[in-house]
Amino acid sequence: MFRLEKVFQKDDSFFLTLFSISKYTAIYFSFYLAIVLRENSIYELLNVEIFTHSNFFVFTNCFLVGYFVINFLLDKEKNYNDSITNFLKLESIRLTILILPILIFFYISNNFLDAHMYTGILIVLIVNLLIIKFLFNQYYSYLIDRNHIQRNILLFGYIDELTKLQKNFKDKKINIFKCIMAADINNEPFNKLKSKIPVINPNHHDLLEIISYNEIAEVWILADLLTNNQVREAINKFSKMPVNFHVLSSRKILNMNKPLTIYQNYFCYEINISRFYGNALFIKLLLDKIFSVLFLIILAPVLLIGMLAIYLEDNNPIFFFQERTGWDGRRFKVYKLRTLKKHNPDKTKQVTANDPRLLNCGSFIRRFSIDEIPQFFNVLKGQMSIVGPRPHMTSHNYKYSKLLDRFLVRHACNPGITGLAQISGFRGATINVEDMEKRVILDIEYLEKWSLWLDLKIIFKTFYAVFKFSKF
């Protein structure tokens, strides 16, 4: 429902943000607890004035600001480390670095406070931080066990390198190798492959089907034994797919002008990485839920009128369900109001102006996108977003992916009810390839420039676009 696996698809930045917020809360609570209970009973815990009127109130706020600055400057890791020993060592160093200058400042300002009190606060603080660490370790393990933060990976390269990586790679609970695409499959008998996962012949399989069936989110190209031409061909092939992909090598690749990181003894080049992950994606998903509930409440009268018009003209069914393609090629049923007559011989044919299959009320309903309102339920289920590339019928995906090189890249995020293409005038049916190409260009531009601010602008412009670009 919340697509947490996508929030975690690149790194643990969102989880680390939650962890940091919890640490700041634990620090403030530790000071509050120690100060209030120093000379008062537990019944005074809710008496905030004891804390705000104490000599430690200013100290607490200075400490928290300092702790935030130190974490901001020193926290460079993007992946969560569950070692409590390492955590205790790092936090002890940070607390020592932080508390000494603050104590000196208060001493110089003749506002030196009780040393015993400092000791008590630090003990409470360390205990609370350890509790927070323990709880987050348990939650991290829970997310892994529930498959919320796993990354389904397709490996491409020579068999020897692929099997070696499988054997030696760490974080196997998070990085799940779903299948191998072997560059030398024609030179190696299948019975020689020492692999527990499917091995795929890149020349005899439909790449889109492989990615959709295995719900592949990332592709890793192991370049050590590949020639430059093979690496370029692989990059060209996977760049047409809606996946993140990296090139890994045990040595630097001189002509690879891409962002470089060191990942478990490999040089890792980020070739194509989605912007949809981490804190920003979590906020987008949260806003999707909130706005969907609001829009369903606001548009309920319009939806009910549309449902009544369909029922009076053509009886049941009122709703129309059709299979569409979502993120990573996952299939889902899109919800719409039915605008065509019940006895419709071809449900895959796009609707055009003056289409004889349309209900009398159907033309009006489609013109003002009233038939799209039920898709807010798809958003609540996590299958769609309010803003994103429009989902097409699966038959159209096969058709246009053969005609337009980057058509499938559109599936690198949740499909949307509205999008950049729609507010630019590309609503409704796409009659020819040229129209679809213009829509795809705008969809890819959205993927490359996405931000929360862009989403908000598109939502507000959609109301204007519905009337300006309304068709039949």
Write structural notes for this entry.
- With about 475 residues, the protein is of the alpha/beta class.
- The protein folds into 3 domains: about 10-145, no CATH class; about 150-270, NAD(P)-binding Rossmann-like Domain (Rossmann fold, 3-Layer(aba) Sandwich); about 280-470, no CATH class.
- The chain is about 50% helix and about 10% strand.
- It has a 7-stranded mixed β-sheet, sandwiched between helices. It has a two-stranded antiparallel sheet with strand order 8-9. The chain has a two-stranded parallel sheet with strand order 10-11.
- A hairpin with a 2-residue loop joins strand 6 and strand 7.
- Helix 2 packs antiparallel against helix 6 (about 115-145).
- The protein is flat, with a radius of gyration of 28 Å.
- Give the overall form: flat
Q: Beta-sheet strand percentage?
A: 5-15%
Mean pLDDT: 82
N-to-C CA distance: 34 Å
Helix content: 40-55%
Number of domains: 3
Report the biggest beta sheet as strand number plus sense, adding barrel if it closes. 7 strands, mixed
- Note the total helix count: 16
Q: Are there runs of 5+ residues with pLDDT below 50, and where?
A: none
Order of helices and strands: HHHHHHEHEEHEHEEEHEEHHEHEHHH
Strand-pairing-aware structural class = alpha/beta
Radius of gyration based on Cα positions: 28 Å
Tell me the strand order in the biggest sheet.
3-2-1-4-5-7-6
Task: Count the beta strands.
Answer: 11
Secondary-structure blueprint:
Layout: H1 4-7, H2 13-38, H3 48-52, H4 56-74, H5 84-108, H6 115-145, E1 151-157, H7 159-168, E2 175-182, E3 199-200, H8 207-214, E4 218-222, H9 228-238, E5 244-249, E6 260-263, E7 266-272, H10 278-314, E8 319-325, E9 331-337, H11 362-367, H12 375-380, E10 385-387, H13 394-403, E11 416-418, H14 420-423, H15 433-449, H16 452-468
